[in-house]
Amino acid sequence: MEAGPVAPVVEPRPMRVLVVDDERNIRTTLRMCLEGLGCEVREAATPDAALAALAQAPADLAFVDLRLGTSSGLELLPRLLAESPTLDVVLITAYATFDTAVEAMKRGARDYLPKPFTPAQIRHLVEKTRAHRELSSQLGNLEGQLAQSVPEATLETASPAMHAALALITRAAASDAAVLLRGESGTGKGVLARVLHSLSARRRRPFVTVNCPTLSEQLLVSELFGHVRGAFTGAVRDQPGRVEQAEGGTLFLDEVAEMSPGPQAQLLRFLQEKQFERLGEGRTRRADVRVVTATNRDLEKAVAEGHFREDLLYRLNVIEVKLPALRERPEDILPLARRFVAFFARAAQRPAPELSPATEKMLRAYAWPGNVRELRNALERALIVWPAEVLEPQAFPERIAAATGSGVALGGPHTLEEVEREHILRVMASVPTLDEAAHILGIDASTLWRKRKKYETAQES
After folding, report:
1. Which tens digit of pLDDT belongs to each residue from 286-323?
2. Beta bridge partners of residue 295, listed in sequence order
3. Statement: the pTM of the whole predicted model exceeds 0.70
4. Nearest by Cα to 66 from 125, 113, 32
5. DSSP character string of 362-400
6. Helix or strand or coil: residue 91?
7. For residues 96 and 115, what is the distance between their CA atoms, to the nearest angstrom?
8. Angle at CA 383, nearest 5°, toward 340 and 362?
9. What are the beta bridge partners of residue 293?
């Protein structure tokens, strides 16, 4: 099933190189070699100039002379890495010794280049560095994909509404515009954000996620922009933020509506100027990052109530993509269910059971308030508790099995306790944690835990 027009293939951006040497001839020679290899090159003659250049714009690779007038390249090396932790540094020296090389590696250098050097040596180092960075990026992306390796991460759909969302994602991938993903909890906004990244020209660079509701205001600022040692209690060392980790790639802010006013102001500034400061530091830094956000809340209502900045909303909502709820794409329910069954059966090393006709009818009839996430959880549970080769409705929680006609409905002949039980179970199925369910229900997590134990005991008896 095609998701829409294919995004144009864009070649990765040139490698950005900083040359730090107090001899003009060396800088000129390196510039000519590097530009011949397609690199973007900047020069600096002193340590201060090198740090200023790096603060102004990030670099991928730096060639640093061992002797910089009265200064030392070895002393500059850790300062460069503090400014840009992902920078690869090659130390240039006319006095190459084993001890020098070891000391350079201890201080964070990737390699060293003895003088006099040849264009072939420069080419080898550039290619070696490019390969290393691409491999690191691929491994980082692969780790993220494996951590989120779930069968709902697919572009196959029979839903016109989902087709429209995928087509818009595909078109948006060809630009660097900010994208806002809207949809109910569990509709797959995180999966679509990763699809957007994988289709874009930034696909070889990191995809970094920040879950906004899980962090306090100070910790969220630190998570996004980093901090320096002593910025707050427990800050025992300098720490780059997710913005720096996402350099050249995509930063995904999940549930951005939960962000408090302080981080909102700093995020707005970063979107406008691509500049930021680590918490507790006065130095301004820059980063080349695409920002993608997601929310299940009405941001316009949050703006009207004074909880969300209107100017930030405009910055985030350049391209808006609405994901339909699972009940709005009923044609996808059974294909998704079969995909989940096959996935969890492989994980359990057992043959994939079939869905009985009664189960198929039940899955289509249920409203799925927790959307794809709830469907996934229901199928995972069913394969654990039901060892037979055919999944029957009895393999599913009562709230889902009741969808065939015997369920609890508002206004029906049910006690308040029955209605409360049904509502609590549905909310718990729609979110991944007990704390989130308690927040939605407006009760303490401990109270919800006791109610859940009560329901489980009643079901077992």
Report:
1. 999 999 999 999 999 999 999 999 999 999 999 999 99
2. 182
3. no
4. 113
5. HHHHS--TTHHHHHHHHHHHHHHH--SSEE-GGGS-HHH
6. strand
7. 8
8. 70
9. 180, 253
